[in-house]
C-alpha cells in the first residue's frame, strides 16, 4: 500500500489528485472513492491507497484515510 497527501479535490465532480511521498502526482479514481464510502477529502489529508495504472497514467484506488492516535 502506498501513502500520499491530497493535492486537490473537487467535491462536485468527485475528482482530484494526490502526491505520493516521492512527489509523484496520482489521479484519484472517483468510482473507487465512492465505493469506499469517503464523501470528501481535505487538501493536505493523508491517505493510504493501491496504486494502479490506466493508459500509462498512475491512478489511486481503494483510498483509506490515515488516522493518527
Number of helices: 1
Q: Work out the count of structural domains.
A: 1
CATH homologous superfamily descriptor:
Nucleic acid-binding proteins
- Helix and strand string, N-terminal first? EEEHEE
Q: Do you know the CATH architecture?
A: Beta Barrel
CATH topology: OB fold (Dihydrolipoamide Acetyltransferase, E2P)
Rounded to an integer in angstroms, the radius of gyration calculated over CA atoms is 11 Å
Provide the β-strand percentage band.
Answer: over 45%
The number of distinct β-strands equals 5
Proportion of residues in helical segments: 10-25%
Low-confidence stretches: none
**In terms of structural class, how would the helical and strand content be classed?**
mainly beta
C-alpha end-to-end distance: 20 Å
List keywords for this structure.
1 helix, single chain, 5-stranded mixed barrel, 10% helix, globular, 5 strands, mainly beta, OB fold (Dihydrolipoamide Acetyltransferase, E2P), 69 residues
SSE inventory with pairings:
Elements: E1 2-10, E2 15-20, E3 25-28, H1 30-36, E4 46-54, E5 57-65
Parallel strand pairs: 3-5
Antiparallel strand pairs: 1-2, 1-4, 2-3, 4-5
